[in-house]
Structure formats: C-alpha cells, structure tokens
Design a protein that fits this description.
Elements: E1 31-35, H1 40-44, H2 46-52, E2 55-59, H3 69-82, E3 90-94, H4 103-114, E4 120-123, H5 129-146, E5 153-158, H6 161-165, H7 167-171, E6 177-182, H8 184-191, E7 206-208, E8 219-221, H9 226-238, E9 242-244, H10 254-267, E10 272-274, H11 278-287, H12 291-303, E11 310-313, E12 316-319, H13 320-339, H14 341-347
Parallel strand pairs: 1-2, 1-10, 2-3, 3-4, 4-5, 5-6, 6-9
Antiparallel strand pairs: 7-8, 11-12
Bound molecules: glyoxylic acid and magnesium ion.
Magnesium ion binds at residues 62, 124, 157, 159, 183, 185-186.
Length: 349
C-alpha cells in the first residue's frame, strides 16, 4: 500500500496532540497582513491593526534581515502572548524555510510560548507533500508536549517549480492544510522567468494583434500568473482548502494591484497578502463580493428555493448550476456582512 488509509488521516500524529479538524474553521480571510515583529513600532500597532484586517501575520522569513531573525521571533512571541483571540482576527506566522538555520527554533519557540494563540503556520518554499508531512508530525509532537488544544494549521507558499508540479499532492498532504498562496517572486526565480517584479503583469508578455496592412498593431498584455493561479485554485478547491494570491510588490501602483487581486478573486481565490497599509483597503474591496452581483445572486436563490429547475431572471437563464454559483457569492457576502455592518446593509443581509 503506497497511500495512507483514509481513517489514519484523522488520528493525531502524536499521543496527546489535538485531533485533526475534519472541516476547516470558517473564517473570512480577505487579506493576510504582514508585519515585521522585530520592529517595536510595528508591534505597538498590533492591537489597532487587528481591528482592521482579517489576518495578521508575523513574518520571520524573507525581508527580515539575517541579523534580526532572533529578534523577530522574540517579538512575535511577545505579540502572541498578548494576543486576544476574541478580536476575530487570525494570528499567523511565516516561519523560515525547512532547510534554513532558523526553522527549528522558529517552530519550537513559537509553539512552546504561544501554541494556543497561533492559528496558522505559513511554510515557504514547499516542494512536495514530504515537506508538509514533516511539519505535520513536528507540529503534533510540539502540540502534545505543550498541551495545545486546537490544531495549528499549515499554509503552503507555492513558489518553486517543483512545488507547482506537486501542487495537488501538497494540497492533499494533511487535514492540517489550510490553504496555499502564490509566491510570485521566488517562483519567478525558481522557474527562470526573466522578471524583476513581485507579482503583477509584464509589458512584454502579450499577444500581438494580427497585421492588417500598415495599420499599427497593439500588443495585448496577458497575465503572467493566470496559469499558476488557476492550477493552484483547482488543487486547493478539490482538496477543500483555500487559495490566495500572494504579494504585489509595487506599492506605488494601486490600480495594478487591484486588477491583479481581482483576477485572483474571480478565478476562485479567497484573499491576498497585504504588505503595505494601502493594500488592506484594496484587498477588502476586491475580496468582498460586489454589491450588485450579490443582489442578483440573492434573486437567483429566492427564485429557486430548492436549488433546482430552470427560471429566467432579467433575460438570463438560471438553473441548478447558477444556483450553486449564487450560493458561493451569497455565502461569502454573509461572512463579510457578519463582520461589517455597512456591507450587511448594502447586501441586505
Ligand atoms: C513570496 O514569498 C514570494 O516569493 O513571492
Ligand atoms: Mg518567497
């Protein structure tokens, strides 16, 4: 037998560790807001940020200088100890990658000091299910040792060529899997893509329209990330976990950030990273469903109460499949409405 039997997936991997979740906790996660925990000014802002964002993530990996790695870890322990889980905001960390000199101390220190406060560990540079299996086992042992009562979930960054080849196996590797984010910077490097950007399009990646005599020809820019995001969404949704766009590095171009986030939203992603405060509002707008679309989706649900049959609404055919599409939209709108009174009124929910 080369695969684990189904029942084994739901046994704790260490005696005394909490039982794995059978369903993911339902949470609104439109933006995963990164902060550098070694910077005191940023730590001081945490309670205020927790009121503004859906997820706060203490970053320990890339962008944290090597000589600040330990200070970042200690800063995050301080934040996690003071964290109030009733705020409704998720507390995540991005640990250093498995082959780095910091990973083991990141994980052992954080779970020991604040394992009950941590919702999700984001693991960078994941190459295959073997990486998830290792973290899964290690988390279980640490949870057992430190009396952690709810499982800490794993979120993988899709940012190596091998990881993309293995994406479905990564998504299915453990009931601890929460989801996956596109990591366009590392992925570009790993694939040998010829870009220097963090996410977004590229002016040279396009299709040139056909020649028509001497008329000037337009190069229509294409989305460099379309293939990867679509593949990630299929891998995640088929495994019952969530897909996310990752970082958008050009903070000066909020229109391009919004366009890129919106493509990801339309393709099935649940959220994106915000690396700059200006991107919080962008993610909030984009990953909360459009009011007119929600109102139309509600009409579909109301006109087909048992979800079957065929009706016409405003000249458009509706059936069991569009009912399901409408339900995706209205379920998300309900989650947004539960958190945001102004949106609840706009959606009429
Ligand atoms: C994120 O980690 C990226 O590499 O884009
Ligand atoms: Mg990266």
């Amino acid at each position: 037998m080369s695969i684990k039997p189904p029942r084994k997936f739901f046994e704790p991997l260490a005696i005394g560790a909490p039982a794995p979740y059978r369903e993911l906790p339902v949470r609104l996660e439109r933006m995963i807001h990164f902060f550098p925990p070694h910077v005191e000014k940023m730590r001081a802002k945490v309670p205020e940020m927790a009121r503004q964002v859906d997820v706060l993530l203490g970053n320990l990996e890339d962008a944290i200088p090597a000589d600040a790695k330990e200070a970042a870890r200690a800063g995050l322990v301080e934040v996690a100890k003071a964290w109030d889980p009733s705020s409704g905001c998720g507390l995540w960390t991005r640990v250093n990658c498995l082959n780095s000199p910091w990973f083991l101390d990141d994980l052992t220190t954080l779970v020991a000091a604040a394992g009950d406060k941590l919702d999700v560990v984001m693991l960078p540079k994941v190459e295959g299910p073997w990486d998830i299996h290792y973290l899964d086992q290690l988390l279980a042992q640490l949870e057992a040792r430190h009396g952690v009562t709810k499982p800490i979930l794993i979120h993988a960054i899709l940012e190596t060529a091998l990881g993309v080849e293995q994406v479905a196996a990564i998504a299915q590797a453990s009931p601890r899997m929460h989801g996956m984010s596109l990591g366009p910077a590392d992925l570009a490097a790993s694939r040998g893509m010829k870009t220097t950007r963090v996410g977004g399009g590229h002016p040279f990646y396009g299709v040139l329209e056909d020649a028509r005599g001497d008329a000037p020809r337009t190069l229509f820019q294409q989305d460099l990330w379309h293939y990867t995001v679509a593949r990630m969404v299929d891998a995640c949704q088929s495994a019952g976990i969530k897909a996310f766009y990752g970082p958008f590095g050009d903070f000066s171009d909020s229109a391009a950030c919004e366009a890129q986030f919106r493509n990801a939203f339309l393709l099935g992603c649940a959220g994106a990273w915000s690396l700059h405060p200006s991107q919080i509002a962008i993610a909030k707008t984009v990953f909360s469903p459009d009011v007119d679309e929600v109102l139309f989706a509600k009409k579909i649900l109301d006109s087909m109460p048992d979800g079957s049959g065929a009706v016409m609404i405003d000249g458009k055919m509706q059936d069991d499949a569009t009912w399901k599409q409408a339900k995706v939209m209205v379920d998300l709108a309900r989650a947004v409405a539960a958190k945001d009174q102004a949106m609840a009124e706009k959606y009429g929910l």
